[in-house]
Specification:
285 residues; alpha/beta; Dihydrofolate Reductase, subunit A; ten-stranded mixed sheet; two-stranded antiparallel ribbon; 7 helices; 27% helix; 24% strand
């Protein structure tokens, strides 16, 4: 049995069971500007009922750069970091229908920074969302992409790096990239892409599309990775869920740079318990 296969089967069963048994509260639309924007709509009867309408995404660019979206949950006071992200208060519908669902259902890859990769595979788990992904012609699980500046990753013990049927791409630069390539030599399902020194994320993004056919990427953070992607002009969509509670590590907004992107609201939706979901189209100032 390939390394990680047995652990992954147990992990997947747990994730599917959690999604199937979750109490999903529907959202109501309180603002919708989607008709004035050139966006693609995705969804099903199941998701439309829970989100009071379709979910939108920007088209894939015509050039050699993939389409990137960012998916974040923040507390009412704007914090995005927590030891357990569920304590930020996004709720079950956000987790299973948006975060692990519609934001990934059409994605070729899910991207995370080294601090945000967690303990498992980043995929779509609710059976209704998995079926929608299949109907869109996508493989069961997306590529797993990890951004790391220092190259310190749990290659030997991390589940994400040890499931041979799920391809992993590591984006790094300089000596860390070379060290990781050597470390992953016995794992042919892992590819290390060097982004040059200093890191050139746009060049790395081009290689993802040209060499691996990755056209759409859902990025989940953390803040350093999100800021780097925004500053490189790669992010087209922000899916932001704001809870109704104060929580998280203080002073941890999703963007930490000096040029906050311009935000154009697509939709705003609210749940009965005060959770707000917003989709913004981003552009550099």
């Amino acid at each position: 049995m390939p390394p990680g296969t047995g652990s992954f089967a147990a992990f997947a069963r747990k994730k599917v069971a959690a999604a199937e048994t979750a109490a999903l509260e529907p959202f109501k639309t309180i603002a919708d500007n989607s008709a004035s924007l050139a966006l693609e709509a995705i969804g099903s009867e199941f998701t439309d009922a829970l989100l009071d309408g379709q979910f939108f995404q920007s088209p894939v660019p015509r050039d050699s750069i993939p389409s990137f979206s960012l998916v974040f949950v923040q507390s009412r006071d704007g914090n995005t970091e927590a030891d357990n992200p569920s304590t930020l208060g996004g709720g079950e519908t956000d987790k299973h229908v948006i975060y692990e669902g519609l934001s990934r259902v059409a994605a070729d890859a899910v991207l995370a920074g080294a601090k945000s990769i967690g303990a498992g595979i980043l995929s779509v788990w609710h059976p209704a969302l998995a079926a929608l992904r299949g109907a869109l012609g996508k493989p069961r699980h997306p590529f797993q992409i990890v951004m790391t500046a220092r190259g310190e990753l749990p290659i030997e013990e991390g589940l994400l790096f040890n499931v041979s049927e799920i391809p992993v791409i590591i984006l790094s630069s300089g000596r860390p990239a070379a060290r990781l390539a050597e470390q992953c030599r016995s794992r042919p399902w892992i590819t290390v892409i060097g982004t040059s020194e200093p890191s050139d994320l746009r060049r790395g993004a081009e290689r993802l599309r040209i060499e691996h056919g990755i056209q759409r990427i859902s990025a989940i953070g953390g803040r350093s990775a999100a800021t780097a992607l925004i500053d490189a002009g790669l992010v087209s969509d922000l899916y932001l869920t704001t809870s109704a509670i104060r929580a998280g590590v203080p002073d941890t907004p999703l963007y930490t740079g000096t040029r906050p992107p311009l935000r154009e609201l697509v939709v705003r939706k609210e749940s009965p318990d005060g959770v707000v979901f917003e989709h913004f189209v981003l552009s550099l100032p």
